[in-house]
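Structure representation.

___
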Amino acid sequence: MNADPRPQPPKIDLQKLAAAAAKPGASSAGASSAGAAADPARGRSAILFSIMLSLERAARRAPDVQSLRYVIVNETRRLLPYRQAALAEGAIRPKPVALSDVPGVERTAPYVTWLERVLGHLAAAHRDQVKALKAAPAPVPAAQPLAGAAPAPAPEAELLKPRLVTPADLPQELAEAWPELAAPHALLCPLADREGQVRGWLWLARDTGFAPADQVLAAQLADAYAHAWLALAGRGAGRRRLPRPRWLVLGLVAAAVAAGFIPVPQSVLAPAEVSASDPATVASPLDGVVQAIEVQPNQRVEAGDLLLTLDPTNLQAEVAVARRTLEIAEAELRRARQGAFNDRDAGAQIALLEARARLRQAELEYAEQRLARVEVRAERPGIVLFTRADDWIGRPVQTGQRIMTIADPSRAEIRVELPVGEAIRLEPGAPVQLFLDARPLEPVAGRMTSLSYTAEQTPGGILAYELKARLDQKAGEALPRVGLRGTAKVYGADVPLAFYLFRRPLAALRQHTGF
């Protein structure tokens, strides 16, 4: 009789987990305060078992693979605290499919690119170890073990246990980038099927090391996750398909081919925000130190209102010195004029002294003008946009350095961060719809006005083009407030339905094959 091909539920070694939990510092998830119970080891074991069973139950009850991925990368920290977690599918070239604390995986992000290369290197090393183990001669049978002794684990099973990963296990290029992208301590857990074939990898990283007890818990969780994953991925396998008439199959194929030529508008989704159109930049008029910020962010100001003040101490000293220098020059000029009646040589110096007095007068006026510019005022009405007043008070600034901007609420636009991987062909005037996070059911319409030529890295670490669109304001409709964020849907030209559906798969195939 053939063996049952269905995945079997994982077996929990309670004695092994209890022994690991009873060790001092077994796992940070089972730690308890001193004196909390009469038997700390038994209390920690009970907590570990409760969390373990809860995670396994959540994995078994996941309705689909996407929900299971969320449980694996976000709920595992209840038993094993970590800073970063990633789930990758594939044994040869693992691809991250889920990350902790983020809704999706951005392939162009530096962390995802680095992690994909790291997992690829570790997966290749794992395959080499498996090949070397299979090529090695069979070991000599050991002596008969004592009665009651646990059998020695098979060599293949040792390769399926979680392993600690350090920068020394990676090439120099990947090891040098580790401190900037990931936590210093990492644990790699293979996800294998019943035959011992690795189907995926679970990457855990945190700031503290993983104790042997943590590795035991991770091995049990990895076994349970692999079982649940294969059970979901294998749904529908082995079902018998009913025979269909040949003409029906041909008709469906012809209909699918014909539907592939139906023109549909190509669209793309990207993060966006409402920004000011042609804002007035408030820059520092001279070198100095910001003494006070007289307004608050998003405050309404009028033309001539005081915005900020620079420290006038040095400029006041310059005015005093210039005024004293002018007084000296004027005194010398008066003395020369009085002595010109008796001394002809003194009269010859009058023109030079007059020029010097005018120079000192100009220097005084220039110093007074600089002193008057320490008070920066609004050139036009609008809303003041900047970070915080505390970020600027006491900070040295240079001439022309931007401190804040003044936006006109009636002149707003949509600024879209279009990722490089989502870029499509767009023309000026392309329709844009903005779905604000504050009002998701009330889209704001607009038209594209410009698209940047080169992509720049956003604060989120994504390479994106900057797209701007004007708002289509209707009569009596209020414009959204500057600073609101949401998701923009940008519409391009009409393309065949087949291209619309297979654009991303074709792009991914081209990246991997080069064609």
